[in-house]
Amino acid sequence: MTLVSEHIEPDTRERILVVAERLFREIGYQKTTVADIAKVLRMSPANVYRFFDSKKAIHQAVARGLMGEVEEAAQAIAARPGPAAGRLRELLSTIHHMNSERYVGDAKLHEMVEIAMEENWDVCNAHIQLIGEIIGSVIGQGVASGEFEVADVPVAATCTCMAMMRFFHPQMIAQCVDKPSPTLDQMIDFILAGLAPRGKAK
Amino acid sequence: MTLVSEHIEPDTRERILVVAERLFREIGYQKTTVADIAKVLRMSPANVYRFFDSKKAIHQAVARGLMGEVEEAAQAIAARPGPAAGRLRELLSTIHHMNSERYVGDAKLHEMVEIAMEENWDVCNAHIQLIGEIIGSVIGQGVASGEFEVADVPVAATCTCMAMMRFFHPQMIAQCVDKPSPTLDQMIDFILAGLAPRGKAK
Fold this sequence. Notes:
The structure is a homodimer. The mean pLDDT of chain A is 88. Chain A has two domains: 1-53, Orthogonal Bundle (Arc Repressor Mutant, subunit A); 56-195, Tetracycline Repressor, domain 2. In chain A, 72% of the residues lie in helices and 0% in strands. Chain A is built from eleven helices and no strands. In chain A, helix 5 (84-103) packs antiparallel against helix 7 (122-145), helix 5 (84-103) packs antiparallel against helix 11 and helix 7 packs across helix 8. Chain A binds chain B through residues 85, 117-118, 120, 124-125, 128-129, 132, 147, 155-156, 158-160, 162-163, 165-166, 169, 171-172, 175, 178-182, 186-187, 190-200, 202, and chain B through 85, 117-118, 120, 124-125, 128-129, 132, 147, 155-156, 158-160, 162-163, 165-166, 169, 171-172, 175, 178-182, 186-187, 190-200, 202.
C-alpha cells in the first residue's frame, strides 16, 4: 500500500470504470458485482470501495461517462457556425445514433439506463437538462437568424426533446423497433415545421 | 355442465376479465395467477381455461378492454363537428388523461403495460396503429378546413403520436413525473404549430 503514490489513483478510478462498463455490457448491470470488477483488476473489493462508495456510485460514474460523450458531441455541433436548421437536424440525429449505439442492440446497457431512469438518478436528470439547453442554444441561434420563430426558446427546447423521446430514450429506442413509427428524418421535419416562422395568423 | 346454457358463457368470460383486472390492480400483474382468479369466482382453474387459452390470453383481453375504452372516447371526439384544432387538442388531452388514470398512479397496471410493450403484444401494436389513424382523421379534417397544412397526413399523424409519447406511453408518464418536461398544453401548442399553414417559404 505504501507503494501507491498519488498519481496512480486517477488511473485506478478510470480503470475501475472501464472494467465496470465492459462487464455491464457482457453480463449485465444487475449481475455484475463489485467483487467481479475487483477480480478483473486483481484487487480486493475493499480497494474498489476506496474509490467508490457503492455499486450505485460506480454505475452513476459509468453512466456519467457515456452521457458526457454525447454532451460533448452535442456541444461541438452547437458551437459550429452556419444555418441553425441544418445543425439542429445534425444535433438531433447525432444524439439518436450515439444513444442507439451505446445503450441498445448488443449492449445490455439499457438495463442500467432503465434502472437509472426509474430510480431517478441525478445524473440522468442533469443530462436531460443539459441536452435541452444545448438544443435550446441552437434554436436560439435560429431565432436570431430568422430561420425559426418561437414564443419561448426554453419551452421550444423541452418540447423538441420530448418530441424526440422515441429516438433519444434508450428504453424507447429498444421498445419501438417493431412498432409503427415515423423515420428519424420525418420526425425532425415535423419539429422543424413547428419551429419555422409563421406566415398568416393561424 | 349440462345446466350451463349458451347465453351464460359471455357473462362468464366478462366476469373473468373484471376479476382479473381487479386483481392486477390490487396485487399486480406478475403475482396474479389463474388460480387466484378462479378462486374469487368460485370456479376451478380448468373452467377459466375453457374461456382463455392461457394467463397471457387473459392479460391481452384485459388490455384490449382498457384500450378499447380509450379508442371509443377518441373516436367520439373525431366524429364531432367543429374546428379541427380544438378537437385535436381535446383528443390528445383525453388520451393522456385516460392513460394516466388507467395505468399509472395507484394502479399496478403499468407493470402489465410494460410487459405488453416489451413483448410486443399484438393488442398494443393494433391500438397504437388505431390511435394514429384517429389522430390522422382529425388532422385530415383540419387540412380540409384550411386550419392545417401537411405534406402527408399519415406521416403527420404518426409524428404527432410519437411527439406525445411522454404523455401517452404509460411507462413514460410514470417515469417522467420528476423529470424536466413541458406541460401537456405546451406540447400540444408545439404540435399544432407544426401542423399550421406555412406562410413564406422556410
